[in-house]
Structures are given as C-alpha cells and as structure tokens.
Amino acid sequence: MISVVLPCLNEIRHGYLPQIIENLVAQAGAKELIAVISPSSDGTDKLLAQVPQIRVIESAVTNRAQRLNVGIAASQGEVVLLPHPATLLPPRQAKTLIDQTFQDPQVMWSGFRHQFDLDHWLLRYTSWYSTAVRPQFGRILYLDHCLAVRRSLLTEIGGVPEMDIFEDTALSQKLGRYGAPVILPAAVVTSARRYRSRGVYHQALLNQALKLMYHLNIDPQWMNRLYEQKVQINVTYPAPESPSEPPPRKSG
C-alpha cells in the first residue's frame, strides 16, 4: 500500500486545494490518504473534513517538514508519497507508476518529472533542469516533484529535516546517500503562484540568492521569512520580522 501525506496550511486562499483533493482521490488503486493541517484560518480543515477518503490530522506544528513527519508517523504504507500542496499529480496514474517502480527492491526513492502551470521560457528551463540535471548530478529533488520514499528509509534517516525552508534539499541530501532518485515517466504540474504575484525574474533571482544562503549556512527561519514575505504559505510566525535584519548564522 502507498500512503499519501498532504501537508496543509491555509490552502483554500491559494485556490488549489479543491483540485488537489480531486486529483488525490481519483488516483487509481487502493491508497491511504492523510492530510496534516496546522492551525488555519481559511476553512482548510472544514473542506478536508468533508472528504471521507482523507484522514485529517490537526496538529499545532508550524512548518511543512513537521507536518510531513506527523503524517509519516501516522501512515501505514510501505512507500510514502509526499505531494506538494500546490502540485497536481499525473491524473489517475501516479499510484500505478509508483507501484510499478517500487517493485524493484533496489529503488529507494523517486519523483515525477516537473512542469509549471505558467508557460514561460525560464520556467520551462527550471523544470527541465530540476528533472534532468539536478537529480542525476546532485541527487536533489524538491517537494514539488512529489517524492515517493520507502518507509524503511525514511525511518532510517529520521524523517524530513524539520527546517522552515530547504527541508526538501536537506532530505534529498540524506536520501541521496542511498542512490539517485528514479524519475517517473509522467509530469506533475505545480502552481506558479509566486512567479505570477512577484514576477518571474524577481522570483527566480530570489530563489538563487536563497540557495546561496543555504550553502552559506544561514538560519533557515530567517531565509523563510525572506522567501514568504507577507504571504505565509509554508510556516506561520507569531510576529513578522523585517527581512532587512542581518541574517543570523545557523547554530551548530
């Protein structure tokens, strides 16, 4: 059985949740669907509670990595699928492709090909690079590729690193020690909402700057405040801080 763990925080305001629910429920074959919701103010919990196929877990955790770990701990499947909350899986065939791929005992983790729902040359290049280059040479897949991982491996590495941002990079770095991910022969579609609201080039430059900060070991909480700014999608904070403050170094 495959367990699907969907992390949620105020997802209705972004307009993607109804499509995500329909997409997950319609996947062919038996699967376990779990949604882990941090305290939300837009009715995300009420919408998910109306879907009998989804087990809803409400948790006081604050970031996406923690939500994923809560769901992983509650799940039962031998393989755990970690879909991005603004990404649509290939219609009806995602579970089938994962089942077929993980019949090979050598396969430890996988992800889908990627594309955005906005047609722009830079986004097409970004999707190509993140599908064809980064996984092969860097063994890194972001969560919007919808990672599927063997439960035994997730247990061995201690789950998803509980960081406010770049948790998927840190997770991939741990998974990559066990081999490169298998890229499944179908594409997921991710919302380009940040690119639409901020501008493609502005968001792309910010992303590259944040990657540099990650490698310089800058504190993930500060980086996530800079990334989310006034639109808190991944994490909730009790009081926003100015991103102009000097970034602290990550301790340790």
Your description of this structure?
This protein has helices at 17-25, 44-49, 64-74, 94-101, 121-132, 134-138, 151-157, 167-175, 193-198, 200-215, 220-228, and strands at residues 2-8, 31-37, 54-58, 79-82, 87-88, 109-116, 147-150, 182-190. By secondary structure, the protein is of the alpha/beta class. It has a single domain, classed as Spore Coat Polysaccharide Biosynthesis Protein SpsA, Chain A. An eight-stranded mixed sheet has the order 3-2-1-4-7-6-8-5. The mean pLDDT is 91.
Supply the key terms.
252 residues; alpha/beta; Spore Coat Polysaccharide Biosynthesis Protein SpsA, Chain A; eight-stranded mixed sheet; 11 helices
Which regions have little confidence, pLDDT < 50, spanning 5+ residues?
Answer: none
- Strand content is 15-25%
The SSE string, one letter per element, is EHEHEHEEHEHHEHHEHHH
Instruction: Please give the alpha-carbon distance between the first and last residues.
Output: 39 Å
Q: What characterizes the major β-sheet?
A: 8 strands, mixed
Overall residue-averaged pLDDT value: 91
Helix content percent band: 25-40%
Q: What is the radius of gyration?
A: 17 Å
Number of helices: 11
| The top level CATH class name | Alpha Beta
Integer tally of domains: 1
Structural class: alpha/beta
CATH superfamily: Spore Coat Polysaccharide Biosynthesis Protein SpsA, Chain A
